[in-house]
Amino acid sequence: MTKKLFIKTWGCQMNVYDSARMADVLAPLGYQPVDEPDGADMVILNTCHIREKAAEKVFSELGRLRILKDGKAAAAARGETDGQDGRMILAVAGCVAQAEGEEIVARAPFVDMVFGPQTYHTLPEMVAKASRAAGSVLNTDFPAESKFDFLPEEAASQGVSAFLAVQEGCDKFCTFCVVPYTRGAEFSRPAAQILAEARRLVAGGTREINLLGQNVNAWHGDGPDGGSWGLGRLVRELAEIDGLERIRYTTSHPRDMDDDLIRAHAEVPQLMPYLHLPVQAGSDRILAAMNRKHTADDYRRLVDRLRTAKPDLALSGDFIVGFPGESDADFAATLKLVTEVGYAQAYTFKYSPRPGTPAAVDGAQLSEEVKEARLAALQQLINAQQVAFNHGFIGRTVPVLFDRVGRRSGQLLGRSPWMQSVHAEANERLLGRIVTVRVDAALANSLAGTVATGEFSTSAIGPSSIGLAPTGPVTQTLEASA
Ligand code: SAH
Ligand code: SF4
Ligand code: F3S
């Protein structure tokens, strides 16, 4: 009998990917995904612990779900559920489960299963146990075996653009971050496993693969040829797969960007000219306190090398403002770095003290007001860069991989090589194809265009012509934050 499975996902791409993997594991047990929790046989909250209030959000969600769970049981007791057992298995997975598993079990005993990111391949056993026993099943182990050796193959079709996890976990221990604790040590999947999965995805219609990892460019492995491979080599091998038109990877750490990967950006046409390369801050003092193990100038030099290899490379980043002890001068150094580098887009966060991390017990925590003001100033600068970047495309043609139908009928949606969303009037038979689109307008978060004929050429596009050059004076933004 089919059972209804509802999964709610917070957090990063890896969590989105994991939720799909959990659905794959549960499918042979009869669980089919549904769009709402009401009446579901199993509800999984796949949680994120990266910033504040994560745990509180989970508890308030659990409060709402408890009502649905009790309601379903009561309906079954009244004989209103078509002979079904009236049980709703409630589960908490992901990084909050890993970090706060015991607290969840103590505060919400009506939760049936609490389990961390490295245990998803054992879901069938956990479900069997939860069905037998009263009380919660708690599993926050870091098992010796790799879950990737036990997870079932991905469902045959993952769509035009698919994610493929190649690396998980982190050994970097930035002083603000919970990921090394919630995901565990760095692990790289074997190259042969990744290549086989990529071939299957492409055979199922995938045209673009986004390689996923918490520190994806730390990926390393023994190649099928016996040699030791880095991510650059893996990208080159993936590029050999017929029908795989685009390759991306995320998220990278500046320290793991090696020469071969940089060369791959110059040499592999399928590798897209867009790189998420977080730097977090522009002050060397703060970078050291964050344990990033590189300076702002190291990052500048790296960006130069990347742009020498790939002049039209668009960069994206992550920034934390208000790290403990961050002075006005430190923050000014972040604005300066952003101005010099020029981002196509970036994510900005107020520092959030995370339990169990070194920075959380630093005495020099900053006020909410300071964090807010700095966030606003940084966002203003980055928004201006994003707008300039997108406006630089008006009148140009870009190759767009259409991967979705748009909200308006007759419209398709896809991405440019630089990760911009592009929509255009287009026939549905162009779904899954790379089509030349002339950009007519740049909106806040997307480009609007018209399907054009003719060949696309990247050669006419340089960093300044696509708005990568610094935008406006930094001093204005500094005044705004004062
Ligand atoms: N592995 C990646 C991403 C980690 S989490 C990397 O090294 O870049 C994604 C982003 O969340 C981080 O890049 C950082 O900018 C932000 N982040 C992590 N911990 C945070 C915290 N305690 N407070 C605010 N932002 C945080
Ligand atoms: Fe967190 Fe730093 Fe690891 Fe990224 S590199 S996951 S920010 S500890
Ligand atoms: Fe969040 Fe865990 Fe991803 S803390 S950002 S879900 S690795």
Topology (SSEs and partners):
Blueprint: E1 3-9, H1 13-26, E2 31-33, E3 42-47, H2 54-77, E4 89-93, H3 94-107, E5 113-115, H4 123-132, E6 137-139, E7 161-165, E8 167-168, H5 179-183, E9 187-188, H6 191-203, E10 208-212, E11 220-222, E12 228-230, H7 231-239, E13 246-250, H8 259-267, E14 274-276, H9 284-289, H10 296-309, E15 314-321, H11 328-341, E16 345-350, H12 368-391, E17 397-405, E18 411-415, E19 421-425, E20 434-442, E21 446-451, H13 474-481
Parallel strand pairs: 1-2, 1-3, 3-4, 4-5, 5-6, 7-10, 10-13, 14-15, 15-16, 19-21
Antiparallel strand pairs: 8-9, 11-12, 17-18, 17-20, 18-19, 20-21
The protein binds S-adenosyl-L-homocysteine (SAH), iron/sulfur cluster (SF4) and FE3-S4 cluster.
S-adenosyl-L-homocysteine binds at residues 50-51, 176-177, 179, 214-215, 251, 253, 278, 280, 318, 320, 349, 351-352, 354.
Task: Give keywords.
482 residues, alpha/beta, Rossmann fold, Transcription Regulator spoIIAA, 4 domains, 21 strands, 34% helix, binds S-adenosyl-L-homocysteine, binds iron/sulfur cluster, binds FE3-S4 cluster
